[in-house]
Design goal:
The complex is a heterotrimer.
Chain A: H1 2-6, H2 13-32, H3 44-57, H4 59-62, E1 69-70, E2 76-78, H5 85-94, H6 116-129, H7 148-158, H8 160-163, E3 170-171, E4 177-178, H9 186-195, H10 210-226, H11 239-262
Helix pairs in contact in A: 3-6, 5-6, 5-9, 7-10
Chain B: H1 6-16, H2 19-35, H3 37-44, E1 48-49, H4 57-76, E2 85-87, E3 99-101, H5 102-112, H6 117-144, H7 153-174, H8 180-194, H9 200-208, H10 217-247, E4 261-266, H11 267-292, H12 298-301, H13 320-328, E5 334-336, E6 339-341, H14 343-370, H15 386-405, H16 408-415, H17 419-458, E7 460-467, E8 473-478, H18 482-489, E9 493-494, H19 505-515, H20 524-545, H21 552-557
Antiparallel strand pairs in B: 1-4, 2-3, 5-6, 7-8
Helix pairs in contact in B: 4-6, 4-11, 5-6, 6-7, 6-11, 7-10, 7-14, 8-9, 13-15, 15-17
Chain C: E1 17-18, H1 37-40, H2 42-72, H3 87-118, E2 125-128, H4 136-153, H5 159-175, H6 177-181, H7 195-198, E3 202-206, E4 223-228, H8 238-245, E5 247-251, H9 260-264, E6 270-274, E7 286-288, E8 293-295, E9 302-304, E10 310-313, E11 326-327, E12 333-335
Antiparallel strand pairs in C: 3-4, 3-12, 4-5, 5-6, 7-8, 8-9, 9-10, 11-12
The chains are: A mainly alpha, B mainly alpha, C alpha+beta.
């Protein structure tokens, strides 16, 4: 202690104090600031492999440097991917939406064309282009920590109007649609909210926090667990399918019975 | 009027010796001394009802109404029509801790906790859908067979009122659970009310007991749903049945059936068994569906709040046509002296009123056109009345387009189409399709009439051809029996009228619209001629075949 | 053939019905009766009996299953097919209870119908129709009674009484309006203002948890569903206030804006609009971030957020009213006052100042 106190007038003393203060502030901030859903760090190899994949599969629409491509008429062929983040790539490529089959109002979910490893590499490359949403940490996908009731409230106010209260999907304008949510992984649900694919609005962390998103995922899982206790669900599309059922199946049964009743016995 | 065959008389005397019968006799005597039951039995028990499956849809409606009453009564034992807010703490995990109304919470209790509760709730809702389906099928059976003609015009109006009340019952009913879907439906009603000139906002606040949503609407709808509407429906059903008994049921034309009789089976015992049995069959089918198919899972929609809404929000099927009109009309609204006229509501209302009005008044319109003041108890075969049938089909097409328009977003996601394009297709279709449908239907009917005419005159084609030495081909026809031919020749012949002498120009035009294109029924003279010709042909055919009409192949094989 | 059954002629005189040439065809009468198997063969009859009895028995089995289900296959209690209290238990309960009842009820009907079809006499019987019109004598008597009654009541001779009576009977129904008027309050200016206007300076809060929103929270191309911060569970008439105050905020690139006035009411491209559709009041909740269109799911009214939420498709007419917003000194979004015009569906005097 005496040795330290003796050095307090050293010219470097101020520098050391500043450095300590910086480290302390930084450390406190890191410890106390609101959690962000950071997942992983990518290696240089990942980024290189990702770039190669990108040039081969994505550059024709998104541009050589992922800066986006616009045709002579001004229509976007593929948007810029700078800043979309690893989460966007993980979602789009992981759900098979990208590479897109053909251009149209909407990229449809289909069989993924890239392996998980390749998806990861592509994500690493795009993440290297500029800061953006990262692939969520497992913690935020753990439904045992989520609250289904809160998730339901968030879902009904923020999601049901496009995706339908049961997650059966819904129509947007001019041929676009919000897809059905059955069979979508928790990770992809999170990423879609975070990145706002195509016409889905962006629900980033400052809109729906990672806890909010986890609650939504928990709610969706609860919906799946509950299933349809009343019997066949008819696609959970509501009164229209129920009415159709009445006019087809039930009416046929009643008609059949009536014909049997009125027919002469053998 | 009643017939007992000799074979039953011996059995009756055996029956009369049994103790059960004697007990019954004592009971019947006791009753007769107090309520004149004997007269009632004499009146009703041997009434004849004709047998045809197409006559059973009125019964389906009646029976599904009874099931609604039974299942509904069960539900009222558990449902709480209060909008007071409580915290849900039942077994459905995804809503635990949520603030909901008592109405919503009690519906959850019925669905998740009361034994058989979900079953009765689903039976109630499925029955409601079946009730309306049956009413429509029944109504159109009556329409297409002309069973609304004198003396049944009033009964047609009673039935029409029942249809409208059925819609009211359904709408008030599915709004009771106070979920997001039906709550948004109520919001739409609020918006429609507000659109009424001058009195709109007053109507809205009176109906909801204040600003939307208020705390009064569910209890009020409950009273309307379990008391007022069912009472009116029951009363009208009563009138409907009384008129049916008074007029007796109509029957399809056939041998032995005239305008002056009813041919069929007696109420006791045959119809008591068949019609009574049919109630249980309908009940059974509805219960089977309710056991196996989910309907209105309101826990997925969530408790009503003015903020959320679900994609694909539609009312129950019988209200779809009203929603469709609202989607098709462009946003036409203008202000005059600062006051708003919402044509985007008033025009759809006018259209709905027109459609309903046409249906209600049709018997009177047709009676004015034909001037036919006779009683009708024999049904028309729809192809014999091409314009009436065409008008009915056109009405159905308009109704269908309106109903489909309400499902435009569901069609869009199912068929990967644009809702905007679909909306435009329906906007154009609603004008074009009914005209097309009318024309095609009328032409089809005339075509069928032509075919039936040929059948009546020449008999059935047997696909067996003989060839004369000269090279002429003659097909062998199997002549019809008088019984088979009767249905083909008994129908009426209508001719258009000329204006003047008590016939207005408008009426003359109308009769021309109805009857200008027609196929005249076969006359006895025509038939005599045809039979003579057939006789000549038979002579030639028999000469060639020796009376054996088998083909060479058949002769070898048999 | 233009005569009625009782011989009277068609009232309108001229009818389109043409008389049949030669009186038409004669009705051939009822066709010969065809006997059923059960009528002809004792064995067929016995078989039919067995089938009917069997069906009644099936019904009994159904009843037993139905009653048993109330004890053995319940939704929250004992359930022999699934874990107690789970959605699966409820599914089984509904299925078994329902199937039991369906069988119980269906086979009573099937038995009764089969009995009637195969065993009860099926010879067609004929009943005569009588005139619906009363006979001439009855009519005369009825008309006489009515005339006598009218005479006795004096209704034709006492015009003063009649006039007064009509007045009374016409007035009474109007009385119904009085109790009807107690069903609800007068609109007054209620529909012209919302919570935002009654409590100016509210911070905008997230609908689902009530937390206030900072300008920096609102990312480009996002949408927030918003309520006034002060509108809590304890606010009186909470639902009614929510039904009017519901709003959304969207953030667009100011370069895309087509409406200067609208942009001026926002902050750096963050715009707030009413969520209540101006058509019939559903929440206009869908937002397409690339086209900047808001879509109402009920009747597909579409609003362009870059142009003051103007209607570009569908049955709505008025644009979504905008909520002017500012930033307070802590960076939170606040609304200094109410929407620019009354929200929700149009009504008669919506444009009148209140």
């Amino acid at each position: 202690m005496k040795a330290l106190a003796a050095r307090r007038h050293h010219p470097m003393a101020l520098l050391v104090i500043l450095l300590l203060a910086l480290v302390a502030t930084g450390g406190l901030y890191a410890a106390l600031s609101p959690q962000t859903a950071q997942a992983e760090a990518y290696s240089e190899d990942d980024v290189e492999a990702g770039e190669a994949l990108f040039l081969a599969n994505c550059a024709t629409c998104h541009g050589r440097d992922a800066e986006g491509l616009v045709d002579s008429g001004g229509t976007t062929i593929g948007p810029s991917l700078i800043g979309v983040g690893a989460a966007a790539v993980d979602f789009q490529v992981g759900s098979g939406r990208m590479p897109m089959q053909s251009s149209g109002p909407q990229a449809a979910r289909k069989e993924p064309q890239m392996t998980e490893e390749q998806t990861r590499q592509l994500a690493a490359y795009v993440a290297s282009l500029g800061p953006g949403p990262a692939v969520p940490d497992e913690e935020w996908l753990d439904t045992s920590k989520g609250n289904a009731t809160k998730g339901g409230e968030i879902f009904r106010v923020n999601c049901a109007m496009c995706h339908n209260a049961a997650g059966a999907g819904g129509a947007l304008t001019r041929g676009k649609y919000a897809p059905a949510l059955d069979g979508v992984s928790a990770k992809h649900v999170y990423e879609a909210m975070d990145t706002g694919p195509q016409n889905m609005p962006v629900f980033n962390e400052t809109n729906l926090s990672p806890e909010d998103k986890r609650d939504v995922i928990t709610y969706l899982e609860e919906l799946e667990k509950t299933g349809s206790p009343g019997g066949i669900s008819l696609g959970s599309l509501g009164p229209v399918t129920e009415g159709l059922y009445a006019w087809t199946i039930i009416l046929s049964l009643l008609l059949g019975t009536a014909v049997w009743l009125g027919a002469k016995a053998k | 009027m009643t017939t007992t065959t000799p074979s039953t008389r011996k059995q009756t005397s055996d029956l009369q010796d049994t103790r059960t019968y004697k007990l019954g006799a004592v009971g019947a005597d006791w009753l007769d001394q107090r309520v004149a039951g004997g007269g009632f039995v004499k009146f009703i028990a041997r009434k004849i009802f004709p047998d045809h499956w197409s006559f059973m849809f009125g019964e389906v409606a009646l029976y599904s109404f009874v099931i609604l009453l039974i299942s509904g009564t069960f539900l009222t034992m558990f449902f709480d029509p209060s909008m007071e807010e409580v915290i849900y703490d039942g077994p459905y995990t995804a809503l635990q801790g949520e603030t909901v109304s008592r109405a919503f919470a009690s519906t959850m209790e019925i669905s998740f906790e009361v034994k058989g509760g979900l079953l009765f709730r689903q039976m109630h809702h499925w029955s409601a859908l079946v009730f309306m389906v049956a009413i429509f099928v029944h109504m159109f059976r009556v329409f297409f067979t002309g069973a609304f003609r004198k003396p049944r015009e009033l009964n047609w109006l009673v039935g029409f009122a029942l249809m409208v009340l059925g819609m009211a019952a359904g709408f008030t009913g599915y709004s009771l659970p106070d979920d997001v879907l039906s709550g948004n439906g109520l919001r739409v009603i609020d918006g429609l009310m507000k659109a009424f000139p001058i009195v709109g906002s007053y109507m809205s606040l009176l109906f909801f007991g204040g600003e939307f949503p208020g705390t009064q609407i569910i209890p009020r709808l409950f009273t309307i749903h379990i008391l007022l509407v069912p009472a009116m429906i029951l009363a009208l059903i009563g009138i409907h049945m009384v008129l049916l008994v008074l007029h007796k049921h109509t029957q399809y034309p056939g041998p032995g059936r005239t305008e002056r009789n009813v041919v069929g089976f007696p109420v006791f015992p045959v119809y008591a068994a068949k019609a009574g049995g049919f109630f249980f069959l309908v009940f059974g089918i509805i219960t089977l569906i309710s056991a196996t198919t989910s309907i209105n899972a309101m826990w997925v929609y969530g408790p009503y709040d003015p903020s959320p809404v679900s994609a694909g929000s539609q009312p129950d099927w019988y209200m779809l046509w009203t929603d469709g009109g609202l989607r098709l009309i462009p946003g036409w609204e203008f202000t005059i002296f600062g006051y708003v006229i919402s044509l985007n509501m008033l025009i759809p209302f006018a259209v709905y009123g027109g459609l309903l009005g046409f249906l209600a008044l049709y018997p009177f319109i047709e009676a004015w056109v034909t001037g036919d003041d006779r009683e009708h108890h024999l049904n028309d075969l729809p192809y014999n009345t091409p314009v009436r049938t065409g008008l009915g089909v056109a009405w159905i097409v308009v109704y269908l387009i309106l109903a489909l328009a309400a499902t435009n977003d569901l069609i869009a996601i199912a068929l990967h189409m644009s809702i905007n394009d679909l909306t435009w297709a329906f906007r154009i279709g609603i004008f074009v399709a009914p005209v097309l449908a009318f024309y095609i239907t009328k032409r089809l009917c005339l075509s069928i009439q032509r075919q039936k005419r040929n059948l009546a005159l020449h008999g059935e084609e047997t696909s067996r051809i003989v060839r004369t030495e000269a090279g002429e081909m003659i097909e062998i026809h199997r002549p019809l029996t008088d019984y088979d031919r009767w249905v083909l020749v008994q129908h009426e012949d209508h001719r258009p009228l000329k204006a003047g002498k008590g016939v207005s120009a408008l009426r003359a035009k109308a009769t021309s619209f109805f009857f200008q294109d027609r196929i005249e029924p076969v006359t006895p003279a025509e038939l005599r001629e045809a039979l003579e010709h057939a006789g000549h042909e038979k002579h030639i055919i028999d000469g060639l075949t020796g009376g054996d009409y088998r083909t060479p192949y058949e002769k070898v094989v048999h | 053939m233009s005569n009625n059954h009782d011989g009277s002629t068609a009232a309108r005189g001229v009818t389109t019905v043409a008389p049949k040439e030669g009186g038409g065809f004669p009705n051939p009468g009822l066709p010969p009766h065809v006997h059923r198997q059960a009528d002809l063969h004792k064995s067929a009859e016995k078989r039919a009996e067995r089938v009917v009895a069997g069906m009644f028995l099936l019904s009994v089995i159904g009843t037993i299953v139905f009653i048993a289900a109330y004890f053995l296959v319940t939704p929250t209690g004992r359930n022999i097919f699934a874990e107690e209290g789970t959605p699966s238990a409820l599914w089984w309960s509904n299925l078994i209870t329902g199937l039991g009842l369906a069988v119980a009820v269906f086979f009573i009907g099937a038995a009764a119908v089969h009995w009637a079809k195969t065993l009860m006499p099926d010879e067609e019987m004929v009943e005569e129709r009588h005139d619906i019109r009363s006979s001439e004598e009855t009519r005369e008597v009825a008309v006489g009674i009515i005339n006598d009654g009218l005479e006795e009541s004096g209704i034709t001779r006492r015009p003063v009484i009649v006039t007064a009576m009509v007045a009374a009977l016409a007035a009474l129904p109007i009385a119904v309006l009085a109790p009807l008027s107690t069903l609800g309050p007068l609109p007054g200016n209620k529909l012209h203002h919302t919570f935002w206007g009654h409590n100016p300076g509210q911070r905008l809060a997230r609908d689902h948890d009530g937390t206030p929103i900072k300008l920096s929270d609102v990312a480009m191309n996002s949408i927030f569903h918003v309520m006034p911060e002060g509108l809590t569970h304890d606010t009186p008439h909470r639902m009614e206030e929510r039904a009017k105050a519901a709003a959304v905020i969207v953030r667009i690139d100011p370069k895309l804006a087509k409406n200067e006035e609208s942009m001026a009411m926002g902050v750096e491209g963050v715009l707030a609009f009413s969520k209540i559709c101006t058509h019939v009041g559903c929440p206009v909740a869908l937002y397409e971030q690339q086209t900047h269109h808001m879509l109402c799911p009920c009747h597909q009214s579409t609003f362009d957020v870059t142009d003051g939420a103007k209607v570009i498709f569908g049955p709505a007419h008025r644009p979504l009213p905008q909520l002017p917003i500012e930033v307070d000194d802590e960076g939170y979004l606040v609304a200094p006052g109410d929407f620019t015009e009354p929200i929700g569906p149009s009504f008669w005097n919506i444009h009148k100042d209140k």
